[in-house]
Amino acid sequence: MSLTVDRRSVSGETVGSIHLDEAVFGITPNVPVLHQVVTAQLAAARSGTQSTKTRAEVSGGGKKPFKQKGTGRARQGSERAPHFTGGGIALGPKPRSYRQKTPRKMVQLALRSALSDRASEGRIMVVDEWSWAEPSTKAAKSALAALGLSGRILVVLGRDQEEAYKSFRNLDEVQLILQGELNAYDVLCNDWIVFTAATLPGGSGESTTDTDTVTESATDTDTVTASATDTDTVTESATDSDTAAAAAASEAPVGDSEEPAAASDDGGPGGADAPELDESDEEAAE
Fold first, then answer.
1. pLDDT tens across 252-264, in order?
2. Is 5 strand, coil or helix?
3. CB 188 within 8 Å of CB 167
4. 6-10, 239-243, 260-264: least confident range
5. Strands 14-19 and 124-127
6. Which of 16, 62, 151, 219 gets the highest tally of CB atoms within 10 A of its CB?
7. Which contacts of 21-27 are long-range, i.e. CB under 8 A and separated by 24 or more positions?
């Protein structure tokens, strides 16, 4: 199965090719997961507002219909019991949520399975861009005809494509959906899935020629060479700094530590102004 599709313009002309992401468009569809996710999505769409009245909610029935004994009938306590006409409903439906908890990875797998199914049938269309300056339903219908699309069409748009949204919204066969809201159910409900280059899941792998590849390789080589040159320059600067530091160290005197300053004659220990000791003090000092 080829995962390369033509990139078309609004007029239907082929302007290039795009390689679809194999992880999104090239897997084997998981049918059980698709069934579970679609069932959960449809269940979550139910409003769940159905309601019936129980015997406590219907009006009337506050009086015992007849006495307990002596009538030959079964005892009754209210005319609004479920087995009476006009009585309450036993075990009837009440408002509830039908939402099912579905793992996020399962939802993502279902979407990839649905897109892969449409890609295997060749039902994926990629348009370069919807280049309309103002909304026009006539232009949108002409674009679909030029692209050769028929049946139910799902157009995936971005939030900034307001002109395309207003152009397609009046067409009955077209369903519009935002890129972030794409889901498996809407993909399966439509015959064609139309993306733009900006909204294509998995990114757009645009095919390149051999000349472009050689040019990119040459550019990468020049970048590596420039990086190596910068590294050599930094290395040489570091070497010069080490040489200068070594020269400064060799010129410095060997004895860096200075002799302790001699006692001054004017004062300090051993100076001329030191107090004289008496003989008794000298003997005690000895």
1. 554 444 444 444 4
2. strand
3. no
4. 260-264
5. unpaired
6. 16
7. 21/201, 21/202, 21/203, 21/205, 23/112, 23/202, 24/112, 24/115, 24/116, 24/201, 24/202, 25/112, 25/115, 25/116, 25/119, 25/124, 25/201, 25/202, 26/1, 26/116, 26/119, 27/112, 27/113, 27/116
Asked if 28 and 109 count as a contact pair (C-beta separation under 8 A), the reply is no
Report d(CA 234, CA 219) in Å as an integer: 23
Distance CA 153, CA 136 (A): 18
How confident is the model over 200-215, as a mean pLDDT?
53
- Please name which of 191, 39, 57 lies closest in space to residue 124, comparing C-alpha atoms: 191
Question: What SS3 state is found at 35?
Answer: helix
Whether residue 112 contacts residue 52, with contact meaning beta carbons closer than 8 Å, is answered with no
Torsion angle of C-alpha atoms 188, 36, 3, 144, degrees rounded to 10:
10
CA dist 227 and 233 (Å) reads 10
Cβ neighbours around 174 below 10 Å, total: 20
More confident call, 131 vs 241: 131
Closest to 76 measured CA to CA, from 65, 85, 87, 84: 65
DSSP-derived letter for residue 274 is: S
The residue type of 143 is A
Distance, in Å, from the CA atom of 268 to the CA atom of 274, rounded to the nearest integer, reads 7
